[in-house]
Amino acid sequence: MDNIHNFQNQEKLEEKVIQVNRVSKKTKGGNKMRFTALVVVGNKNGKVGVGLGKSADVSSAIIKAAIYAKKRMINVLIVKDTIAFPVVVKEGAAQILLKPAPPGTGIIAGGAVRAVVEAAGIKNISSKILGTNNKASNVHATLKALEKLAK
């Protein structure tokens, strides 16, 4: 019975592919092509997760990333469709600024940050990417910032 309940919860989750990257490795037999996929999974009600999947083909990389993201979801504190207080997080070269916004503002955020915030269910927020423009780094920094809000 628990498996059925778990399956019903997974139906509500929304997956968004942020980046698909082709990587190649030099081998004796030639170049070995593989793919990485960065996926954000959220229920638009305070739960969000990020996963990076690697595989020989794109579709299985996306599936692996989604499974990884579902396993490592975090709870996000949402107050009146926005975040409780401004937060700045530096993770590696990525630096993210998230600020609460009044109702009606919408999501003012770049592509990588926007995907994470939308999946979490935040409707009004203002953000700025201050460091690198690497999508993977910015997604992980945004997740860390949202995690910091819950503490």
Average of the residue pLDDT scores: 90
CATH domain class name of the largest domain: Alpha Beta
Largest sheet: 4 strands, antiparallel
Low-confidence stretches: none
- Written as H for each helix and E for each strand, in order along the chain, the element string is HEEEHEEEEHEH
From the N-terminal CA to the C-terminal CA, the straight-line distance is: 33 Å
Gross CATH architecture of the largest domain: 2-Layer Sandwich
Strand elements, count: 8
Radius of gyration: 17 Å
- Overall form: elongated
CATH topology of the largest domain: Ribosomal Protein S5, domain 2
Q: In percent, how helical is the residue content?
A: 25-40%
Q: Output the number of helix runs.
A: 4
The spatial strand order of the largest sheet comes to 1-2-3-4
Tell me the domain tally.
Answer: 2
User: What structural class do the secondary elements suggest?
Assistant: alpha+beta
Give the oligomeric state: single chain
How would you summarize the topology of this molecule?
Layout: H1 2-11, E1 14-27, E2 30-42, E3 47-55, H2 58-71, E4 74-75, E5 87-91, E6 94-100, E7 107-108, H3 111-120, E8 125-129, H4 135-150
Parallel strand pairs: 7-8
Antiparallel strand pairs: 1-2, 2-3, 3-4, 5-6, 6-8
Helix pairs in contact: 3-4
